[in-house]
Design a protein that fits this description.
Layout: H1 2-13, H2 22-33, H3 36-47, H4 56-69, H5 76-85, H6 89-96, H7 103-120
Helix pairs in contact: 3-4, 6-7
């Protein structure tokens, strides 16, 4: 709170434009309170995520959250590749045979494939 009061006082004193949007506020707060190395650590954590024993939905949510936290702005194709490369080869090969355009479609197909392979006992 003290930081914010000081910032507003300085803005008024120096005739600096006031902060109007939530994005501006977040940006200022990140610069002030988040250490520089944190993004690098979060990005490394994102790179090391693996599917392991999580369900596809859980894993996808974990990837999305890690991308948000590490401020990664991948396009949809890069995110799909990141997601696909983390699965075991059986799941990935079957999903690649399906047609999908959007990430959500790929997740839905992957969930179905995973369930089918679990029912067969192959994963």
């Amino acid at each position: 709170m003290m930081w914010w009061d000081q910032l507003m006082t300085n803005h008024m004193r120096n005739y600096v434009r006031q902060i109007d949007t939530w994005d501006e506020m977040k940006s200022l707060m990140k610069r002030r309170f988040m250490p520089n190395h944190l993004y690098r650590e979060l990005y490394q954590r994102l790179q090391s995520l693996s599917h392991n024993t999580k369900s596809v939905d859980e894993y996808f949510k974990e990837i999305e959250l890690a991308m948000i936290r590490s401020n990664v702005k991948d396009d949809r194709e890069a995110t799909m590749v990141r997601f696909m490369n983390s699965f075991n080869h059986d799941v990935a090969h079957i999903v690649k045979l399906h047609h999908y355009v959007e990430l959500e479609e790929m997740v839905r197909i992957t969930v179905k494939v995973e369930k089918q392979l679990q029912q067969k006992g192959t994963i």
